[in-house]
Amino acid sequence: MEGSRILRNSQIIILGICIAAATIISSIILSKGFLKITKFVKEQITVTGSAQKEIKSDYLVWRSTFSTRQGDLKTGYRKLNEDLGKVKKYLTGKGINEKEVIVSQISTTKVYKKNEKGNDTNEIQWYVLSQTIEVRSKDIERVDRVSRESTELIEENIELESQAPDYFYTKLDELKIEMLAKATENAKLRAENMVKATGNKIGSIRSAKMGVFQITPITSTDVSDWGVNDTSSLEKKVMAVVSASFAIE
Fold this sequence. Notes:
It is elongated and about 85 Å long. It is α+β, with helices and mostly antiparallel strands. It has 3 domains: 1-42; 44-56 and 170-248, Protein of unknown function (DUF541), domain 1 (Translation Initiation Factor IF3, 2-Layer Sandwich), CATH 3.30.110; 60-166, Alpha-Beta Plaits (2-Layer Sandwich), CATH 3.30.70. The chain contains 4 helices and 9 strands, in the order αββαβββαββαββ.
């Protein structure tokens, strides 16, 4: 009996020692793993890179509005329809493709007579009818020139108001990919220059986040946190910003 008790106690002691040893070894392994993870997370650098490129618009949208003021609707609609025919004829005569022309619905506004105090009465004095023509074209130079010359229609008794054209770049998706790649390259170059003095090197990229992407006139120095998409200028400047993190080796 005494021998069995001693043997059992010895087994319990040995088992306890094994469990303790396993716990210590596991703790060491986990600690090393944690240190490696911490080192992986901490030994990195985050920088901002940017890239710029000048582009020329390849698509134009030009809007112009013509109107008439008449005492009755019937006369107003007839006059506006005549003006529409003249405007279309003018545009096609200048070489603009009729398929590029979009005509809006007619807008009608009532103008009421004033009383002696300058307040509106219930009596209609005029009907003002207007219609907008929109030209969408890749032939930028031609349409741009016509937009400046369109005041010639005033000589045909057409009340025309020409707006400044809007200029667009249709390959923006492809350009954005190109610019983001160049901005990331710039970020890596900046990171390399920053850690060079420490004797370290830049490793693989850990993360990248797109920042401002904006299109401005070439001479503009404007910067916006929300980005800018200029449509007022034919020639533009594109800027892309990327925030990137790299491993330090």
